[in-house]
């Protein structure tokens, strides 16, 4: 089906070392006791043209939520492309977007490859993928088990990876699927029938790590640094974390995001997964405020873990050689 039996696949479903899934009883308890902070119905729109490719390193432009345009001399990548209004089945139900994408899909440069971290509706938007396939026919990289789902979007050049597997693109860029502490589910397919993860990308003079959706796990992030080195630029989630009793196994909070930043040794990290859809109970602008407090408590400079406005771009800084790699 999706791969050989392993320490995270039992022949039918994928799993984490520690329990992540919540039961319907847990969901009912959350909904019954939840007191979410109201979000605005709309935030000021910011729509910008895509920046030019950098001559050196890699540059990441935040389009919204977990969608980034990552450009280097060799390649243009798009992470978890979602340009729709809702994140839910059929684009008819689910949270409504409070801020439009900072770059319109039609204005994107030609995309060479898409990095799809998992199947949840706020990350895997089939209409966006369908439009990209029709326009650019990019290579789509996804964790194991996504073939049937992405076939519905017309994806022809799909490469499925298991944790720690690597793909070398035609331009010499190397992409490795990294573990994450999460889960998968949507209306089609069984719960945890598709794998989840992040992506470590290595170019000629740069490295980029997209953490994907993840709870905190000291072992996972230490392994990423040991196996692949410290990334020059890391994309780390900071939102969708309240209430902690429910969300902690699957979504890190800002303090844990700072721990992840330090564990992987990123030269620069960028906050993602906040301020686009109200998925959980915290206010729309609470994650960056909590991140600022967590940075201060950990002694991490503001420029080392950046909060971007939609449409803003951050350029990688080259990490020195990591002694953990030798």
Automatic annotation (TrEMBL):
What is one cellular component GO term in this UniProt entry?
Answer: cytoplasm
* Source domain of life: Bacteria
Pfam families cross-referenced by the UniProt entry: Lactamase_B_2
Q: Where is the Metallo-beta-lactamase domain?
A: 77-274
A molecular-function term among this protein's GO annotations: N-acylphosphatidylethanolamine-specific phospholipase D activity
Q: What is this protein called?
A: MBL fold metallo-hydrolase
């Amino acid at each position: 089906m999706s791969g050989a039996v392993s320490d995270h696949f039992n022949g039918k479903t994928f799993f984490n070392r520690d329990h992540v899934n919540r039961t319907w009883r847990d969901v009912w308890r959350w909904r019954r006791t939840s007191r979410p902070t109201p979000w605005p119905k709309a935030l000021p729109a910011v729509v910008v043209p895509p920046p030019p490719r950098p001559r050196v390193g890699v540059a990441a432009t935040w389009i919204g939520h977990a969608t980034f345009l990552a450009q280097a001399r060799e390649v243009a990548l798009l992470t978890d492309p979602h340009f729709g209004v809702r994140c839910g089945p059929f684009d008819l139900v689910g949270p409504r977007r409070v801020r439009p994408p900072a770059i319109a899909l039609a204005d994107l440069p030609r995309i060479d490859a898409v990095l799809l971290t998992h199947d949840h509706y706020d990350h895997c938007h089939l209409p966006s993928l369908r439009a990209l396939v029709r326009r650019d026919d990019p290579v789509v990289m996804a964790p194991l088990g996504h073939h049937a789902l992405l076939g519905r979007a017309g994806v022809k050049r799909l490469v499925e990876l298991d944790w720690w597997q690597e793909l070398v693109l035609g331009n010499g860029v190397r992409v490795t699927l990294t573990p994450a502490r999460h889960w998968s589910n949507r209306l089609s397919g069984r719960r945890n029938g598709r794998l989840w993860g992040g992506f470590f990308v290595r170019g000629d003079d740069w490295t980029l790590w997209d953490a994907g959706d993840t709870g905190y796990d000291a072992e996972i992030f230490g392994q990423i640094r040991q196996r692949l080195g410290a990334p020059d630029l890391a994309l780390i989630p900071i939102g969708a974390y309240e209430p902690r009793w429910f969300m902690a196994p699957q979504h890190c909070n800002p303090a844990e995001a700072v721990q992840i930043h330090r564990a992987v040794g990123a030269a620069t990290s960028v906050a993602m997964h906040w301020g686009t859809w109200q998925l959980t109970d915290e206010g729309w602008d609470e994650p960056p405020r909590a991140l600022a407090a967590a940075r201060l408590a950990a002694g991490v400079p503001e420029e080392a873990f950046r909060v971007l406005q939609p449409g803003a771009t951050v350029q990688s800084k080259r990490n020195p050689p990591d002694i953990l790699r030798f």
